[in-house]
Design brief:
Number of domains: 2
Low-confidence stretches: 1-30
Number of strands: 5
Shape: globular
Helix content: 25-40%
Distance between the termini: 34 Å
Number of helices: 10
CATH superfamily of the largest domain: Cytochrome c-like domain
Mean pLDDT: 89
CATH class of the largest domain: Mainly Alpha
Bound molecules: heme C
Largest sheet: 3 strands, antiparallel
Length: 261
């Protein structure tokens, strides 16, 4: 299914064929759109692993997101790994579920997947300007990356009947006293707008799906502990609403629920 031609040719170079042949530009552009979504996604996977998208062949998308689209759990400035918590660093997000998101980048700086991926190729990877076809294929691929099936929590965020008791108690804290659901809203666990929660600026409310495997946490990866991240968040909420702080047992339960998402 994957055509070797597309692996080595990043499709970024304007194809002289279209210019010299007496074919209209419209027709030349229409051709890729005729690829089925599955063929486009297969081409996208090849490009996802293609180091030619970066200057000097230093990295492919899969260097940081693995070919499954999941995070490599590292924090970067450009293509350089930096210490977790570096204020300029940005922790690699998982691309699972990216089709459900409405803003991209930790600061929510990109409004579309196209803007997001183009920006990464040109600014982070210092690669050549990607063609529309390259972007379309990469988008088609990342849109196929879904969250894994979840046996503890249903699609609407409520615990399943056979979920652990801690997860069930944690859900109650999540939607009630912890106040988490006001920002990480069910059923997507995110929110369209950005918030300043005291981490150094306004950041988007990230989805909490699969968060147990995306450490370190927050935009700069300031903590590797999910329990610590949950604690920080409850403290932020309690301060804002002058509400109570959690007990140690409650933190365990809430972490169990969030870790099961
Ligand atoms: C050097 C590591 C690295 C490489 C290479 C890389 N990314 Fe990323 N990616 C990141 C980081 C870090 C972020 C968060 C950036 C930010 O917030 O500004 C990110 C964010 C994203 C996002 C936004 C996700 C969201 O929910 O906000 C998408 C989509 C994405 N990358 C796709 C890609 C694709 C496609 C490629 C290849 C063309 C790629 N990335 C290459 C590290 C990388
Ligand atoms: C006022 C809105 C708001 C509330 C309330 C809130 N959060 Fe957050 N949360 C955010 C924002 C914004 C970020 C991202 C901040 C950053 O990246 O610096 C975040 C990040 C997180 C992260 C890190 C995610 C990651 O991928 O790194 C976790 C975990 C988290 N929140 C859990 C919770 C829990 C649990 C609660 C309830 C106790 C909660 N949040 C309440 C806005 C909120």
């Amino acid at each position: 299914m994957a055509q070797p031609l597309t692996v080595t040719q990043p499709l970024t170079v304007a194809q002289p064929v279209a210019v010299t042949q007496p074919v209209t530009v419209g027709a030349a552009l229409a051709a890729p759109a005729q690829l089925s979504e599955a063929d486009l996604a297969a081409k996208g996977l090849d490009l996802f692993n293609d180091v030619n998208l970066s200057a000097g062949g230093k990295a492919s998308c899969a260097t940081c997101h693995f070919s499954t689209g999941h995070t490599n759990n590292k924090t970067y400035v450009g293509l350089d790994v930096v210490a977790d918590g570096d204020p300029n660093g940005r922790n690699t997000p998982t691309l699972w579920g990216v089709a459900e998101r409405s803003v991209f980048g930790w600061a929510g700086q990109a409004a579309t997947l196209e803007d997001s991926i183009r920006g990464i190729i040109v600014n982070r990877m210092k690669g050549p300007e990607p063609s529309k076809e390259t972007l379309a294929a990469l988008i088609a691929y990342v849109r196929t990356l879904n969250y894994p099936a979840n046996w503890q929590v249903k699609e609407d965020g409520t615990p399943r009947a056979d979920a652990s008791a801690a997860v069930k108690r944690g859900y109650d804290l999540y939607v009630n006293d912890g106040g988490c659901g006001t920002c990480h809203q069910l059923p997507t666990f995110d929110k369209k707008s950005k918030d300043d929660i005291g981490t150094g600026g306004k950041f988007k409310v990230p989805s909490l799906h699969a968060v147990s495997s995306t450490a370190p946490y927050f935009h700069d990866g300031r903590t590797g502990s999910l329990r610590e991240a949950v604690k920080i968040m409850w403290e932020v909420y309690a301060k804002k609403l002058e509400s109570r702080l959690p007990t140690e047992d409650e933190l365990d339960d809430l972490t169990a629920y969030v870790g099961a998402l």
